[in-house]
Amino acid sequence: MSFDRVWTDAHLCTMQGNGLGVIEDGAVAAKDGRIAWVGKRADLPAGAAETTRCDGAWILPGLVDCHTHLVFAGDRAREFEMRLEGASYEAIAKAGGGILSTVRATREASEDALVAAALPRLDALLAEGVTTIEVKSGYGLDLETEARMLRAARRVGAARDVSLVTACLAAHAIPPEYAGRRADYARHVADAIIPAIAAEGLADAVDAFTDSAIGFTPEETAWVFDAARRAGLPVKLHADQLRDDEGAALAARYGALSADHIEYANADGIAAMARACTVGVLLPGAYYFIRETHLPDIAAMRAAGLRIALATDLNPGSSPALSLLLMLNLGCTLFRLTVVEALRGVTVNAAAALGLTDRGTLAPGQRCDLALYAISRPAELCYWIGRNACVGRVVAGA
Ligand code: NIG
Ligand code: FE
């Protein structure tokens, strides 16, 4: 066998099967950017050009952050102060703050400024072992700014060693020029924004925020999803974050890649998601930061066999989180996920949430995206609060 590169003296979490797929004292070999061989070091066939000894580190598939709003201008620290003085996330949004204050800042920002602001945030995630990231628009709410955000996202991805996929979230909030005309804006998203964004190849998926108070109704969301279908783009949904709007069932009906947040999703909706192979993306950073108290129904998710992912939801309003490792800890402490659930949630299931089947596990034929950690057991990745134990990161075998 001939390999380009081999990693030895490592323990592996292959994520094969239903658990962590642990191989102690293992080795991984790469050829042409793909994993060519994985197994016990003692069984490694000869044929490596370059061998990296890992000093007993643990190797996981490169982490996947499957839900971020990485590209935005400004911040919402002032709004954070207001919340500390008693205002709620929803009340601030209804008063024209919240998402709309980031929309104002983003509309004023150049593409260069958006790229410059996003890069250090991306670097923080990459330093923890992230090798694939999803980035949404949604702070433009007009064609020009949505397109600028997505172009900025593509540039940010090209500037670093990372796979970056995009989602058009034009149906994120009602822009000021459509105040009181929510349905008209939803039609505009469906009839004008999605087709134009798709024609330029700027989006890999379409997202929306279904919420009866500050987002879109299920019916309006369906118009946007129908437009995505016409454009040949998969869909995903911010669903049941602040109340049960039957978002989980809607996402399942459209065969969505994922339904995200889902704190208030009911058991029927969760079961429908599982049947539709829609991944449930939990966002404990947002749950924590807006001090939500309604827990996602993890028992129903387990009973339905739902695939669960974890992501940062990195955004200026509800989750200014620059650490996917911290989400592992929050997912376990707040939602009582097991270590296996949490770690599968940032690897194989997060890849599934993006429709990517070529990563998220260590297996022959997969992309050779690896994250190396100086830890003594996988649980440490969930256990530490604010420790980055990442000591290496490999993208496509390099
Ligand atoms: O995922 N739920 C809506 N969207 C974002 C929040 C965006 C913001 O507050 O700027 C979320 O939590
Ligand atoms: Fe989000």
Overview of the molecule:
This protein is an alpha/beta fold and 398 residues long. It folds into 2 domains: 3-62 and 360-394, Urease, subunit C, domain 1, CATH 2.30.40; 63-354, Metal-dependent hydrolases (TIM Barrel), CATH 3.20.20. Helix content is 37%, strand content 22%. The protein contains 15 helices and 14 strands. Strand 9 (236-239), helix 8 (247-253) and strand 10 (258-261) form a beta-alpha-beta unit. Helix 6 (182-199) runs parallel beside helix 7 (218-231) and helix 8 (247-253) runs parallel beside helix 9. It is globular. The two termini are 19 Å apart. The model has no long low-confidence stretch (mean pLDDT 97). The structure holds N-(iminomethyl)-L-glutamic acid and fe (iii) ion. N-(iminomethyl)-L-glutamic acid binds at residues 98-99, 102, 209, 238, 241, 286, 313, 315-319. InterPro entries: Amidohydro-rel, HutI, Metal-dep_hydrolase_composite, Metal_Hydrolase. Zn(2+) binds at residues 67, 69, 238, 313. Residues 58-373 form the Amidohydrolase-related domain.
Which features characterize this protein?
15 helices; binds fe (iii) ion; 398 residues; cytoplasm; Metal-dep_hydrolase_composite; TIM Barrel; 6-stranded mixed sheet; binds N-(iminomethyl)-L-glutamic acid; alpha/beta; metal-binding; 4-stranded parallel sheet; 2 domains; 37% helix; histidine metabolism; Urease, subunit C, domain 1; zinc
Distance between the termini: 19 Å
- According to DSSP, the number of beta strands is 14
Looking at the overall shape, the CATH architecture of the largest domain is Alpha-Beta Barrel
In percent terms, what proportion of residues is strand? 15-25%
Looking at CATH, the homologous superfamily of the largest domain is Metal-dependent hydrolases
Q: How would you sum up the global shape?
A: globular
Uncertain regions spanning at least 5 consecutive residues: none
User: Can you write the helix and strand succession as a string?
Assistant: EEEEEHHHHEHEHEHEHEHEHHEHHHEHE
Hetero compounds: N-(iminomethyl)-L-glutamic acid, fe (iii) ion
Strand order of the largest sheet: 3-2-1-4-13-14
Compute the average pLDDT: 97
Total number of domains:
2
Helical content stands at 25-40%
For this structure, the CATH topology of the largest domain is TIM Barrel
The radius of gyration over CA amounts to 21 Å
Under CATH at level 1, the class of the largest domain stands as Alpha Beta
SS summary, helix count: 15
